[in-house]
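#dry-run=false #mode=assembly
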Amino acid sequence: MAARTDGRPVALVTGAAQGLGYATALRLAADGFAVAVNDISADARLTSLADRIAGLAVPADIADPDAVRDMTSTVVGQLGGVDALVANAAAMEMGPFLSQDPHIWWRQLEVNLSGHFRLVQAVVPHMRPAGGGRIVLISSEWGISGHANATAYAASKAGLIALAKGLGRELGPQGILTNAIAPAYIDTEQPVREYRAARRLRSVTEFRRPDAAVVERLVGRAPANLVCSVCFPGRFL
Amino acid sequence: MSEREGRGAKAPVALVTGAASGIGAETAAMFRRRGWRTAGIDLRLSDTDLSLRCDVTDAAGIRSAADEVAGQLGGIDAAVSAAGYYEEGIDVCDITREQWDSMLGVILGGTVNTCAAVLPHMIARQSGAIIAISSELALAGSTTDLHYVAAKGAVLGLVKSLAAELAATPIRLNVVAPGPTDTPLLAPDSPWRKADYLATLPLGRLVRPDEIAAAVYYLATEGVMYCGEVLSPNAGAVI
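#status=ok
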């Protein structure tokens, strides 16, 4: 990892105000990263997290291409570059396929898949001159298995898995290693009743709390030859 | 299906998007050879019993087309979402917003619109099968075509979710993810046609479009035990 403005390598984590993103930011900071923490709004959780880890709060709507470009410029300008990206922010709105509002349906694709693709496009030009980097796309078990009444979320998360493999292949020779994580249900704030009900049936109890250990393995002390992998923490198969 | 034929009723109906060329055309031809009536939806006219011109990104247009197919032919027994196109040779950072949005709109959006259009008919008759065409590139990744890879990957999540959502009904949804296939989608000078690439395939050749069509037909007819499955005829490109 390149040493940046204050000597620390730089990580950008989206969706960092709570859950897995929050846990990831703490872990990476403890590993010595300067962490830029993003979420959709500049609420107190984000700013206090940034303060706590001597990082940088960069609120932005991932679905907004201009905001993503500006956010990347801010991170590069203030912290010196981007060595690692953890694409974790996600929109989820469950409902039967045939009765979902198309705007609500496609918003999930815009945030989870298209928005993060544009973020990757924004950060890769900064990783290339540094000789490499790490990209972790946070997918979901539902991106592998699908889930009833979650067509948009599952489609976006499946797209991320395929994208991780494509990015892994295309950018691997440039020293930028991309991997994906497809966690089983995590006890975060996604406020969906059915999601919580399903969680009781299938989650592995001890993995209910968001655990950034796997993310850390793919970013901080990452093996130099791990690319295109998909990891399934908490999943039985 | 056999029950219907046994009673001497009209032949079953297959609706195929992207029926004007490539895998879509070969799929429509396969269904016709097996005695089905075919309806083709494409930007251009197709060699089908009922050929309709419509852009798969037009949700309302596809809905009207499906309604017309059901109205004129009596129902929709199978639907195949094969409409799509391919672009490669583009660095990931150079894929424009228009290129990304267009690819996602046709590949994922076209499949969404097709499913939304045919499912009400299938649900009303409590019968039907839908097959979406994804790609082996979504399973194994690729390079310089990442908008295609992501869109074909998203189709997998959509169809698996719908398969689960409809599992309590007789309607089945599955995916065929072709490996490199000999269709006009691969340009004559495409890297996928080069000898050194073909030598990397265990079977040493491209897959034929009629072989892809056979996998689609199987899932639409005999494959009643499959739910959210992904069959990938790929000459061994992914084992």
